[in-house]
């Protein structure tokens, strides 16, 4: 069995979403491949549907293109995204938008098991719903979803939170945000949250059984 996993986690460090996707893949016990979408250069669908209609796989030539055939051939897919602006990231959106290549006359990925992973500072619901709505267009079999509320706003990394009254940290704490010293321990990790660890194990267990 071959499982391919994609993460739209942030670059520059190993993100929670990256590590969640990797953990599900590794614990599944299958032959796996991990792809970090934010390290690829690619765009969303450009509407050249006359090109993908017959092969039923996206033909847009860029870094993402080889992975559409791999999704078609995989026995299951894991896809993860952080929450940006209350929604899935544009990276994840662009990647899934090009699944449109599959959607002509019939849907070769219909029924394929998918696990979704969403990580965000606080409000994950709308992003999960949107992700599932997009995947629903391809009639995939959504076997599980793992969510992790990191409580990590981008302000923890930006270095300017003490002078800022518009960022997520200020929204969360008000003026107290300006006094806050950011420490390594404040970058919460899903591995320290037992509910998320259990959810990762449960998702991997479901993949084990495919
Ligand atoms: C541009 C940007 C916008 C963000 N917007 C939100 C948001 O609307 N809601 C939220 O809960 N978190 C938001 N975040 C925080 C990330 O979702 C959060 O830090 C997440 O844990 C990052 O995941 P990663 O470590 O896997 O990259 C935003 C982060 C960035 C960089």
From TrEMBL:
Instruction: Provide the NADPH-dependent FMN reductase-like domain boundaries.
Output: 1-144
Q: Which UniProt keywords apply?
A: Flavoprotein, FMN
In alphabetical order, the GO MF annotations are: oxidoreductase activity
Which protein are we looking at?
A: NADPH-dependent FMN reductase-like domain-containing protein
Q: What is the organism field in this record?
A: marine sediment metagenome
């Amino acid at each position: 069995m071959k499982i391919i996993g994609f993460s739209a986690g942030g670059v520059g460090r190993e993100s929670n979403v990256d590590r969640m996707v990797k953990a599900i893949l590794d614990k599944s016990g299958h032959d796996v491949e991990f792809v970090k979408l934010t390290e690829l250069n690619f765009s969303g669908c450009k509407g050249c549907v006359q090109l993908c209609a017959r092969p039923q796989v996206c033909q847009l030539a860029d870094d993402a293109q080889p992975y559409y055939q791999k999704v078609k051939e995989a026995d299951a897919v894991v896809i993860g995204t952080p929450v940006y602006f209350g929604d899935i990231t544009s990276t994840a959106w662009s990647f899934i938008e090009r699944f449109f290549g599959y959607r002509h006359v019939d849907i070769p990925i219909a029924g394929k098991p998918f696990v979704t992973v969403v990580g965000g500072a606080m409000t994950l619901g709308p992003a999960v719903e949107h992700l599932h709505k997009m995947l629903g267009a391809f009639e995939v079999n959504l076997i599980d979803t793992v969510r992790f509320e990191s409580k990590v706003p981008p302000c923890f990394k930006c270095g300017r939170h003490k002078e800022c009254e518009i960022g997520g940290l200020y929204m969360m704490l008000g003026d107290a945000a300006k006094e806050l010293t950011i420490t390594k321990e404040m970058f919460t990790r899903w591995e320290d949250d037992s509910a998320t660890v259990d959810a990762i194990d449960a998702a991997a267990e479901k993949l084990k059984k495919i």
